[in-house]
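#data-curation
PF: Archiving a pair of folding outputs for the training set. Convention for this channel: one message per protein, sequence first, structure tokens after, nothing in between. First:
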Amino acid sequence: MTHRQWTWLAIALLAVAWPLLSPFSVTLLNYIGLYSLVAVGLVMLTGVGGITSFGQAAFVGLGAYASAWICTSPWAAQALSGVPGALLPWLGLVLGLAVTGVIAWILGAVTLPLSGHFLALGTLAWGLSLYYIFGNLEGLGGFTGIAGIRPLSIAGYELTSPRLFGIIIWAVLLLSIWAMHNLLDSREGRAIRALRSGRVMAESMGVDTSRQRMKLFLLAALLAAISGWLYTHLQRFVNPTPFNLEIGIEYLFMAVVGGSGHLWGAVLGATLITLLKEQLQDWLPTLLGTSGNFEIIVFGLLMVLILQRASDGIWPLLTARMQRWVRPMAPRTARTTQAALARRKLPPQGQVVLSAAQVTKRFAGLVANDAVDFDVKAGEVHALIGPNGAGKSTFFNMISGVDDPTSGTVTLLGQAMVGKPSRAFAALGMGRTFQHVRLLGQRSVLENVALGAHLRGRRGWLSAMLQTDRHEEAALLAEARRQIERCGLADYVDTPAASLPLGQQRVVEIARALAGQPSILLLDEPAAGLRHLEKQALARLLSQLRSEGLAVLVVEHDMEFVMNLADRITVLEFGRVIALGTPAEVQANPRVMEAYLGVEDTEGAVA
């Protein structure tokens, strides 16, 4: 059976067994479902997006208290006197999502610009703060809490039974996993996955990384708020205890232990930790002959052991062992009807596409580039060469939006670009590769190349979740396949990118850049790691792109490759241009010979 068939089988078994389960088992499964919903948000936020948060319990509390307040507050009862009581829990859901969204946006604006451990500490700070706010507001019942909350009502039927309410909890959880799976299996999902590989690569593909991080943060917060809303109407009582910092850490453990990059790992992690805590609370007092919080100690030690033995979580280990019983899904094929992708008109042959005028870059007292003038024209291959330390990488970063020059101007297709991010360069038609390969290693070659076409799609998150973007997605994947075949990698379409040799990974980067249909292609040492025949194939590809009117800039150390390919060559030494001309002119230039060989010998050629 396929993964999908196994999933449907598991859901069917749960549905059949549900009426037969004991009340205790139903209650336990209800809590597992509530915890899993929060953990799914953390899988998206932490496992996929790379943003660590210890404060999700506070968002659960916001969803819980908003609904509890609207159902019990005298002020709310007076303001909503004409509203039927059965609608109050649903208004509580709306209020909870609205309040959580606003507070999460404010906290995200403050927290997300931080990085590393500062980001994690920031989430600890506001998670702790919100917990004490819940306990110190008299209008929210203080630490005593709020009781007498209305039960959830559907079609006039009140869900007072945990068994019936559990069906709602698990239905919401399964719909959330379905929506998150659809999101990850889309154009926007590829952008989300790119966040973990570093913002420079994602921005160069046209991804607005700040916006994506904020949307992920809001998504995880809203899923937590829905869990809190369900918890309130399951318990019909709420106090601050379930929303403290310790519970926030447990939520993160659930996501990490299950498998932080896997949606079903969230359910597995929530199940294991909930059952483990339950059993430890029963066993340890019996074994030790005394009561106390000994389960916390044992629980912590077990978590360390699990994380040491399964750093990627238990779900990947489980699926690896299950491979013999799982039939791979058939590769996705292009649909017969596809959305038309946006296309740009290439500039006319010979027109300057990219230019730099008097570009200077200083790092304190070090001058990395000194008044560099440079341009690339449509329909030419322009090579930038120079000895190690000449300033090539620094200049490359400035003309691609990664860094800003200290002085001077950079112009792309007639537009001044200094101060603009890399995604603005990509939007105007710049595609690029990297000196150190930056790919989504565990994703297929097809998905990596499709990321390059990010700006050629328009559908957003909601369309992806509801699968109304499938025609556009088919068109993006078809374009990615064309570029993969064009670059000679057709046999590796569904191969994880990290399993390819370095040379082929560089070709994947070129295919990814071409998927964006650029007007100019910047290649940072594209021939590094390629064998002789692969270099010849790359040279033929670049020659074809030149004949099609594409502007190509190559930064390269392989002089034979450069001299046989380039139309013009610019040579840098100590951040300054020392030569500009055709390959023959550059090879005959005595300053170039001195820079490369250290002697004033004009005989021979640069080798």
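PF: Second:
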Amino acid sequence: MHRYRSHTCGALRDANIDQTVRLSGWCHRIRDHGGLLFIDLRDHYGLTQCVADPDSPAFKDAERLRAEWVVRIDGRVRRRPEGTDNPDLPTGAVEVFINEIEVLGEAAELPLPVFGELEYPEDTRLKYRFLDLRREKLHQNIMTRGAIVDSMRRRMKDQGFFEFQTPILTASSPEGARDFLVPSRIHPGKFYALPQAPQQYKQLLMMSGFDRYFQIAPCFRDEDPRADRLPGEFYQLDVEMSFVTQDDVFAAMEPVITGVFEDFANGKKVTQKWPRIPFAESIRKYGTDKPDLRNPLEMQDVSEHFRGSGFKVFARMLEDTKNQVWAIPGPGGGSRAFCDRMNSWAQGEGQPGLGYIMWREGEGDQKISGAGPLANNIGAERTEAVRAQLGLKAGDAAFFVAGDPAKFWKFAGLARTKVGEELNLIDKDQYALAWIVDFPMYEYNEEDKKVDFSHNPFSMPQGGLEALNTQDPLTIKAFQYDIACNGYEIASGGIRNHKPEAMVKAFEIAGYGEETVIERFGGMYRAFQYGAPPHGGMAAGVDRIVMLLCGTTNLREISLFPMNQRAEDLLMGAPSDVTPKQLRELHIRLNLPEK
């Protein structure tokens, strides 16, 4: 028999009854039932119930065992007594009567339990991550993550993509987030950077004549903590294709992402025909560029019903042509208590409040009448016009946001989400996927009083060089696109600007001269001079996709060894001090801030 096991802890079935077996694993749970000792033995593959009674030669050894001790158990497989089967366990029809126990590794007192799914402080969980990873739900999430990556890889290869590995040590990039820098010992005073993304390398692969690239790529960004991104590093499904239009990228990637979601949806619906929503429409209808389409609410511009009305606050605002009034429908929300609750929520978000109208069954000729301060101020006719436009009925409400949409759209989007959640309108049993398209190429930076790239500086403007030369930059749209799912951006991409003169012009508009382009993107700029194919691609966030499919909202629940919110690895003790000798070898002297 093998030194440690003849079977795993998930393998035994009825067919093994009366066999002598050897199992090794962790003592998951130990139960004393009046002289009978039950040990639930766990390994990666499952759990088997093992039993010792006072007549067993191993009983005294069994009495010594504690949670998470690692043991080898020899014994005979038998059917569980009638009425004690566990149908939720694959091994639940059988148990092992113990003949011999060998302790392979004792465990100290546990800083957090492995049995059960109790909430524990995050710093404790991360410091003892090797224990945390033994817990059933987290262990399963990590295995699901591996299976999702396998599904991505298989589907990409089925679509004719080839997997490449691009460098980890590269040059610092001026765009995007802050780089992690790596000092060079051989070149004193110079630094490598860890890649924020393989963006330039994957484009250079297209310059090199490769046609369909993909990579499950590690990316590194020295960013302040964000709820939807792990500090330090994350992984993305990175993709690039030659001789393609935007439609070709969509046709290649839609079945891959749809298929991955279908593989792990556990019965939830997955969008089959993805809508394509222009950026401006997404902002206007949903108040976000990553809409949760499980929420059926769509905001509408109702400015005309308030222009010149008796509600002077909105009427005066609308005298400025850039201002608008948007309505958020609230079907089923027509109670004073709910409307007051929404108003209080808005004040908690730093707003003066949230105007509303409630509709109720009317009297006489008026079948439905509006109620509330706004309805009283604008009158029955305008109130009815608002209701008709929004398609609402008695028992419903609408909430109103007014001013410059450029300044209020994010709050309006939050309000739409809040109404949908509070009224239970969100269909939790689906993954709602969509393309967001036609992003603006540029935006105005109020702080620096200049035009900036709004998304990806390497994207092709719609209209090409002519648009760059003749259009107001703030009106130029780009061949840029995102994938939104359930309120998260899970992918982003674009058709690339592959013509040198167009690339230089695009950067000039954002305040970078040709010499800056050559200095910072020299390799790619040089490659464009020697026959650059039209190309485009995207990158999908592996961590966010896994998070959605595992049904969690915390990225630490789907990552092996994540950092905490202060970008510290509590398990390994990183970042850590280095020795004076190491600093001398790198020609670095520390200039630390005063405490």
